[in-house]
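Re: the pair you flagged

First of the two:
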Amino acid sequence: MPYQIGRAPGPGSEPPVCFLRSLGLVLLSARVLASYAIEIAWWKELGQFRTWLSLLYYSMAPLTAATLLAFATLW
């Protein structure tokens, strides 16, 4: 029974893990990014972009502050 020596796995034998993770991250975040892009365009069309920024800030600031406080406390 003859044995065949196969090619050793090298750097080009399979896609890099970093590329696959990046692609997955882009695909998962595409819906959120598209939603924000549409929302920004709509608020700009109304001439109320600064109002949207204020709404975004007032909704994100408490969450960010609580996250930083919890991180500092648990560190």
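Second of the two:
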Amino acid sequence: MTGPVVIKLGGSLALAAVLKDWLGVIAAARVPVVVVAGGGPFADVVRQAQAAMGFDDRAAHRMAILAMAQFAEAIASLDYRLVLADSEGAIAAALERRQPVLWNPIPLALDPAIPHGWDVTSDSLAAWLGQRLGAAHLIVVKQVGRQEPPLSRHLLAERGIVDRAFPAMARDVAGLWIADRDALPALAAVVNGADPHQTNLTPIS
């Protein structure tokens, strides 16, 4: 495996009873793992506030990144084995120590080169980070039900399962997969060294 497994942990897991089960599996990973937390209920508040207050998409984008950071902070408090890291150097150092990483997106994801708006959500930011880290795989975990292959990045964006920027931002990520919340056994296999092709994770082209 040439790079870490990046796991986009959907915000739908934030208030789910199974969240700690997922975190336990990830924290015990035997391969390098980096978790990108979605915005979950924290990002929902941003959407509600934008509708009521009328602030622009640039502000909403930055606030949604803060929402991702809030979810990451909450996750970190639930399992001490997960290490928060906010830069590529900090991520690399934690992985060198064989610690599973939770990405704090605030510094890197405010890069002015990244479009600021709802077209870029945690899905695309996970792909962006995966590309920068040379990820071996990006696994996008969402409460979407089983998606039957063949699946493409563009089809998922058309269905509204991932954001509109995802097809372009995930283009150079080596291995792309999508998983529903019932795919924890498959994720456990992958983070313990199994080839995702030998699991029921669904590939994305």
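The chain has a mean pLDDT of 93.

-B.
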